[in-house]
Specification:
Strand content: under 5%
Number of strands: 4
Distance between the termini: 49 Å
CATH architecture: Up-down Bundle
Number of helices: 11
Radius of gyration: 21 Å
Low-confidence stretches: 152-157, 349-362
Structural class: mainly alpha
CATH class: Mainly Alpha
Strand order of the largest sheet: 1-2
């Protein structure tokens, strides 16, 4: 395969990895955001946590693979993005760690105040990444202050680097995208809750999905249409955005009719179309310079060598099906709905909130 084919393959694979992460960990984050609103008592909160307990850590693997693939396939993209967005990405990482620790520790003590603090950590650890991922993508697509940094070393070319500050990331477009991801993930999480629960918990989740979903739809339309101003392929990306809007409205209609499975499929499709529209509009750039288009990072000036990409491709061909089969098996094992009646009346001190209780039962 030629280098042109290889960079296209890896640009597409990274887009797919981000789609997978946003669909899977997106509903985890959505459930976390809803925890203080739908978890009116300890029993309901434990039901909510149990819906994502068996899968949340596996869902986060998609983020690790997306970051690793970017580092290996497009090292200059990785270096510029992670150095320029360092504080934002550090906050995301800290929030994800905090959320993971909270899942494990909230049931270690039979103390209401102890659990309340960890529940707050789950909420914060879900809101921050759900928002800042949208902000980060807004800056990748809309442009960041990237310019050459002169070197005094003989024989070395000037490198392209992020030259802005953290507050340069908080521009109107990126903030709108951040609000969009927060609301869409929250709706996605509510629909997942409705799909995984029974009784009053399911009804509460459906109502939340409809209420948040209406606002999410309005913000998403504004954000994705705004993104078309930065798209290099509006003829392709605009139909994708319109299809995403139709899919999201279809998800709300399915939720209203009690078709939770179809609703989840449609919100997943919405997320996939939205992310793909951003990547398609970005091509062949991987980061856009707001200073001068001559300083854009592209798949060609940011990629690894042909041999590296070839080896990576073969590894991906062998390993990807294995990972997908394993994760699919996990979801199959824990596929059943759960309810408050399946949760023991009191958590067992020392266990991680009995988070798997009833999750695989009929």
């Amino acid at each position: 395969m030629t280098i042109d084919t290889l960079v296209l393959i890896w640009f597409g694979l990274i887009a797919i990895l981000w789609v997978g992460y946003f669909i899977l960990d997106g509903f985890d984050q959505g459930v976390g955001v809803l925890l203080p609103f739908l978890g009116k008592d300890e029993l309901r909160r434990r039901v909510m946590i149990n819906t994502i307990g068996p899968v949340w850590d596996g869902n986060e693997v998609w983020l690790l693979v997306a970051g690793g693939a970017t580092f290996a396939a497009f090292p200059l993209w990785y270096a510029t993005m992670f150095s320029g967005y360092y504080l934002a990405l550090f906050l995301i990482l800290l929030a994800l760690i905090l959320r993971g620790v909270a899942f494990e520790y909230r049931g270690k003590r039979d103390d209401a105040r102890w659990r309340k603090r960890w529940d707050a950590a789950i909420f914060v650890g879900s809101v921050i990444p759900a928002t800042l991922f949208g902000v980060a993508f807004g800056n990748v697509v809309g442009g960041s202050p990237i310019s050459p940094i002169e070197t005094t070393l003989p024989g070395e070319a000037n490198s392209l680097n992020y030259t802005g500050t953290f507050f340069d990331l908080l521009n109107p477009f990126s903030l709108t995208l951040g609000v969009m991801t927060l609301l869409v993930f929250t709706t996605h999480g509510a629909i997942f809750l409705a799909l995984k629960t029974k009784g009053e918990m399911r009804e509460a989740a459906r109502k939340a999905a409809l209420r948040v979903g209406v606002v999410a739809a309005l913000v998403a339309v504004v954000a994705l249409l705004w993104a078309q101003l930065y798209s290099g392929r509006v003829v392709v990306t605009l139909p994708m955005v319109l299809l995403a809007a139709v899919a999201f409205l279809g998800a709300l209609a399915a939720t209203w009719r009690g078709r939770d499975g179809w609703a989840f499929i449609l919100t997943s499709l919405t997320i996939a179309l939205a992310v793909f529209s951003l990547f398609v509009g970005l091509w062949p750039n991987v980061m856009v310079s707001s200073i001068d288009a001559a300083y854009n990072l592209t798949v060609y000036n940011a990629s690894s060598q042909e041999y590296t990409l070839t080896v990576m491709t073969w590894v991906a061909v062998i390993m990807t099906p294995i990972v997908l089969i394993y994760q699919g098996w996990t979801y199959w094992v824990f596929r059943k709905r759960i309810s408050t009646s399946m949760i023991p009346p009191e958590p067992q001190t020392g266990r991680a909130d009995d988070r798997f209780a009833g999750a695989s039962q009929g």
